[in-house]
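Problem: given the chain below (251 residues), write out its structure.
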Amino acid sequence: MLKDKVALITGAGQGIGQGIALALAKRGVKVAALGRTVAKCEDTCRLIAEQHGTEAIALACDVAVAEDLERAVAATIERFGGIHILVNNAVSTSPGPLLAQQHDQVLNAFMVGPIATLRLMQLCHPYLSKEGGSIINMASTAAKRWDMSNYGVYAAEKDAIRALTRAAASEWGPANIRANCILPHAKSPALEKWTERNPEEAAAFVRTIPLGRIGDCEADIGEFVAVLCGPESSYISGQSIAVDGGQAYMG
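Solution.
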């Protein structure tokens, strides 16, 4: 049972992060919703209260800033007394060909991606290990594409997160901490903007999905994450799981 567990979720103000927050709250999980724009996180908390009556707090947090992460974890512990679920969902992309990449853009992508993921896993480890916990990190199927043109940096940061997830599962399993990666496709605001800019490419992209549609942030991604965090998945760890309608081949 997940009721009264505590989840800390980054990028929780919209899209996949919000969908995960709502799906967990539906099961009675208390949520710390983190994001750079606290007003969006407050919207998530309002939806949680209206739909599920579960406790939630909104915390302003730039995951690229170590002090912000420390403050967010401390505030979550002060409010709820523990952390049982960590969802690293915040993302920053640096699309474009490799020769066009600027150092500061690439560095920011890695600061928000794998470096912030590692920092939060380290900060939450003492609390996750108390009763056994679950880490869910967001990766991408971008690195599984035959042609990674214009997605090289994004694929690199996401594959780094997959490696960190596998290492955490290996090193922290004895503490009863499970760590898994989700590689999702969902109708996030970022994807919607990309679709508007690239309608032909977006239509072609959907045609490569066997189920013929883009996933829903809550119904498809959030619900799966909730199951993966629950007792019915207690023997699953160290995995990278594509939740993408059958598009990616993970073999």
